[in-house]
Design goal:
The complex is a heterodimer of chains A (322) and B (247). With 322 residues, chain A is an alpha/beta fold. Chain A is 37% helix and 25% strand. Chain B has one domain. Chain B contains 13 helices and no strands. Classes of the chains: A alpha/beta (322), B mainly alpha (247). Chains A and B meet through helix 3 of A and helix 1, helix 5 and helix 6 of B. Chain B: It comes from Streptomyces radicis.
Amino acid sequence: MAGARIRPSVVGVIDVHELTKRYGGKRAVDGLSFTVRPGRVTGFLGPNGAGKSTTMRMILGLDSPTSGRALIGGRPYGELRAPLRTVGSLLDAKGVHGGRSAHAHLAGLAAATGIARGRVDAVLETVGLDPATARKRAGGFSLGMGQRLGIAAALLGDPEVLILDEPVNGLDTEGIRWIRDLMRSLAAQGRTVFLSSHLMSEMELTADHLVVIGRGRLLADMPMREFIERHSTSRTLVRAAEERDAPRTRAVLESAGARVEPDARGGWLVEGLDAAAIGGLALAHGVALRELTPRLASLEDVYTAMAASSAEYTSERAGVAS
Amino acid sequence: MREFGRAVAFEWIKFRSLRSTVWTTLVTAVLPVPGAVFVAATESLQPDDTVLGGSLTIAVPALMLAAVVGVLVVSGEYGSGTTVTTFAAVPRRGTVLAAKAVLVAGLLYALALPSTAAAYLVGDALLDDGYAQGDPMPALLGVAAAFSVAGLLGLAVGTLIRHPAGAVTAVVAGLLLPSMLGPLFGDAERWVAGISPTAALEKLTQTSDATAEAVGSLGAWPSLLLVTGYTSLTLLAAGAALRTRDA
């Protein structure tokens, strides 16, 4: 029915509309609406218990929403004809039986959707699991190897859309870099990449766009750069050339209305005045400056500030699993 | 149809790539033959029993293992969290359950038929003359079908209960308890013990244990039909639960 109405513009688009999931009286996801578009990496950010995993499970048709809908390319997941060839997914719960080999796990999935068996060896090679390891029982895999197997399964059907819950979990530095490059290259090929992570520094390096939720509600849906700029209080690092000028520098800046805090590595972090104004004040008061650096907050700073500012995030953590 | 064929292929690969399902199935299939040898060697057969019934004495525990095979095919997924992967690959959950049912029933039938036939031939060769023979045909076809039905009952219970140990306990209790507790019910014993799949199996094997007092006077084939009937209903309930529950 929906088939005839699909336009190329919605292929690969994840459309979440007024999505709500209630467990008993508790809303794990509460009227959530956002769109994930192809050609870029979209990061899904939120504290534990914010509803990220529940949202992803609803998009994948694993959990049914209390109300609202989640569509992929204009259709619910359950109506996709060969779902693994459209959407590749990796959820927090590994979804691999410990008694089964990686190879058999992938061979089963290939058979389920009519994917050529040759893809199994191809994706095993892509994720760096050697053939001997792939024939061993997955129960003996390290967290990192398990994660690579999960990503191999997600890539198996060469899908247009990738939905990955915490993909860098358990990976070492090299593995994290590998995932980052992989995600960016998949997005560059025009695919839709939607991934959640609690590692905000990692997200900052990987994602182009952010969807931020807290307590099941949308907090932000915007480009990464815009999110940081909008939510960070821009600060400037100021260092006087002479150490003895430091207290006077602070006094001058504070009398001009700035908030001044000591930086951990020396100098003052100034909020409320931009670099030009600070430079002007220093010149007027005869203070020579050694450093005057505008500091854009990292995603982590912004996120921490956001989470801390609303007590509800921290107080409600215990409730529903994410 | 192609979609269903793929779902069955998926289930078959999952089945044969786990030791638990493969070994339980092999033991289920092999058990009746040494059982027949054992009965002949110990000369434990009652004088009024049949060769067919005596040879298939150990088919009753094998039938319980067949039910366990059915449980394992689904509870292994719940236990390991692979239901998520399975439903992502095959979102139509009714298709998943139907594919598992075809696999379990087909496999158990294909293994139980030669296995119980071999047990009968072994028993026939080893047992002393003087026992009534019993009619192996078409009874053995029904015996093999009982294995399929027991497997399907296990599959349905495993789907409903999800927890592996809980489901195995429930299904073994369901097969074992009616005949164990039956005598406690006095005259009602035949009604309690008679509904179990093991009762249908005993009647089909024409063993002298399957008296009307113990397992009721319902014939062998109607008994098999009864068991098939409530197994089908349990499977339908399992399918409904699977569709409405979160994975």
